[in-house]
Amino acid sequence: xxxxxxxxxxxxxxxxxxxxxxxxxxxxxxxxxxxxxxxxxxxxxxxxxxxxxxxxxxxxxxxxxxxxxxxxxxxxxxxxxxxxxxxxxxxxxxxxxxxxxxxxxxxxxxxxxxxxxxxxxxxxxxxxxxxxxxxxxxxxxxxxxxxxxxxxxxxxxxxxxxxxxxxxxxxxxxxxxxxxxxxxxxxxxxxxxxxxxxxxxxxxxxxxxxxxxxxxxxxxxxxxxxxxxxxxxxxxxxxxxxxxxxxxxxxxxxxxxxxxxxxxxxxxxxxxxxxxxxxxxxxxxxxxxxxxxxxxxxxxxxxxxxxxxxxxxxxxxxxxxxxxxxxxxxxxxxxxxxxxxxxxxx
Length: 346
Known about the structure:
five-stranded antiparallel sheet; 1 helix; four-stranded antiparallel sheet; mainly beta; globular
């Protein structure tokens, strides 16, 4: 009888503890979403195994997640595929081209309220039965997700540009292309933040290829990307919480496509033919290792910062220990890919 009373008394306490643990993310699990040719594969980060494949018939250039992590938008240049990450199903497709208008999407991001897509596009139009093409200036297209309509568009310097959404500013967007600009989404006015090609002195010119924006829903919001100039390798850093732009000079020169900042913001990891670990305070190289699978394009970090997923750059993803850069395993994929995103789910 006493034992039953004790159990009854302890039950509410246990439930409160379980709820508290759940709210603090104690039961959270990490998953890697890897869009590849003809399907997106989902990796369980506890076992580093593929647990599901969502089929489609296309090749994905880049992707973007909604701020709440419930939607994942895959950019196939001519089509945007929409993944529901709660059910892990393909729920919609957006196509912007028609018989007389070809729209190619090169850069994509989602507004901080999750209501709009920002698309950096190249647009070519033609008239019926007239053998002449009209190439429009590169455009930033604002697409309303609920109504599935283009609500605004503004000319931008280059179509091959990556838009960076600001978490606390719905009125502005940062565009990274030939230069780095901030665009006013009410007027379309551009403000130059950092020159890459357009600088006062030729020796100040920089080169940076920004296709991938490694990051995860709910992370620290620090986007870093490699650039090169006459002095060597550097990293430009955009704080999506404040809109602040800063530069970090690398002490050594490596070749890198993309980079990601650790959850504690102490380290930066960059990748191409090597995986490089850099001290965020000094730019010093802590360690670098050659990749067994050759060239890879992007990286994802687990939410605890202990494992880094490198690639793909082909039909596989490599998993490394972030402290030692020891290769833990290589996960074979069913096809080539070039992008990943980490989702943490409770």
